[in-house]
Structures are given as C-alpha cells and as structure tokens.
C-alpha cells in the first residue's frame, strides 16, 4: 500500500490531544502553505484562515464548541471563515493579483474579470455565502491531508456555535463567518478512538463506473 493510502488510513478525527506536544513552526508553515496553494473556484479563495494559539481566546471558544477539549488541548486551533458577501472588490483584487503574478496587463484580463462578475455579483447573499463556504471545505481537505503526510493529527469540527465564534473573533464586522474549525496537534495515548477500525462504505457501494 502506497504512503498516500497509509497516511489516509492513519489519520482519524482525534478526540483527545496531548496538550504538551506542539507542532513546530516549520511544520505549521508547511501546513499553511499547503492550505494557501489549495484550489478554489475561479482561484478567488473567498475565505480567511485564523491560526489561534492565544489561551484566553481558546478558553472563550471552548464553551461555544460544546465543551470539546480539542479546542484548548490541541497545539493550534485553525478557524476557517468564509466571506459572507462580496462585490466587485473581491474579483478586481484577484485580477490585479493575476496581472502582478503573471506579468500580464490588467487590460488583457478584463474579459475574464467581466465573466466572473456576470456569474457571481448578482447572486443572492445567501447563495454567495453558501458558495464561499464550499470553497472553505476544499482548503480544509488540503490542510488535513498535508497534516496526515506529516503525521500531525487533526479533527474537523462543525460542532460549535458559529454566531458566538463570530462575536468572539469579531468576524461579523469584516463580513466573515466561522464555517469550520480544525484543531491540529498530536494524539494523546489515552485517546481510545485511535484504535478503532476505520468505517467507510465499500468500493462497490461508493463508486459507479459509467
């Protein structure tokens, strides 16, 4: 079995982290760069990622995360926040980035910029928010798999009160919404979950070849 499958079999949603084991700065930078390089629709990356180590903030977030210990015990707490609404500024900023990165005149990218605007700007706010949240999960998957490659444990969590997170982190003021949380670190030897067999659908049930 290749390392790809071995690492995916090794990882699991860690329920109990060892609070004394910390992810190194070097490994953290690798994880964040893997996240930054993640694919997203149109390449827009309509989200922001918060890396939280502050103990006081994490203690405030724990009660609104159903009291789950991962929030405070993991080495780092990653909060993915999707953009809830956007206008031309998001798309124009991306076009400018493409122009600068690829040394292409902005004028030659106007057609692509106009195409994105025609597809996205008139969407209702709730549809925009739903779409940006989907982009978050692509980045989340990339971060989780990069962590597995480094034998760093993770636990993707939707079990939290998003409105409370938004208030504590001041996200409403900047048109962001906490959409998913990812504690990262190292599993505790006391976490019995690590010994459970991984339960997934069979290939026959999951895949259809046409």
UniProtKB/TrEMBL annotation:
A Pfam family: Nitroreductase
Keywords attached to this entry: Flavoprotein, FMN, NADP, Oxidoreductase
Gene3D superfamilies xrefs: NADH Oxidase
Keyword Flavoprotein attributed: yes
The Nitroreductase domain, residue ranges: 10-186
Cofactor(s) required, per the database record: FMN
Family assignment from sequence similarity: Belongs to the nitroreductase family.
Name of the molecule in the record: NAD(P)H-dependent oxidoreductase
Origin species: Flagellimonas algicola
């Amino acid at each position: 079995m290749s390392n790809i499958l071995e690492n995916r079999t090794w990882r699991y949603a860690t329920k109990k982290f060892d609070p004394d084991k910390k992810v190194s700065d070097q490994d953290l930078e690798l994880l964040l760069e893997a996240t930054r390089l993640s694919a997203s629709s149109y390449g827009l990356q309509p989200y922001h990622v918060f890396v939280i180590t502050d103990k006081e903030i994490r203690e405030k977030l724990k009660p609104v995360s159903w009291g789950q210990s991962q929030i405070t015990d993991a080495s780092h707490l990653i909060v993915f926040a999707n953009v809830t609404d956007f206008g031309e500024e998001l798309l124009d900023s991306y076009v400018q980035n493409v122009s600068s990165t690829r040394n292409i005149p902005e004028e030659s990218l106007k057609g692509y910029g106009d195409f994105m605007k025609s597809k996205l700007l008139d969407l209702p706010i709730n549809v925009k928010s739903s779409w940006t949240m989907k982009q978050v999960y692509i980045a989340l998957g990339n971060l989780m798999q990069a962590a597995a490659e480094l034998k760093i444990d993770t636990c993707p969590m939707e079990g939290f009160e998003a409105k409370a997170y938004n208030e504590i982190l001041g996200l409403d003021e900047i048109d962001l919404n906490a959409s998913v949380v990812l504690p990262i670190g190292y599993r505790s030897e006391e976490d019995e979950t690590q010994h459970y067999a991984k339960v997934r659908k069979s290939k026959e049930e999951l895949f259809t070849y046409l």
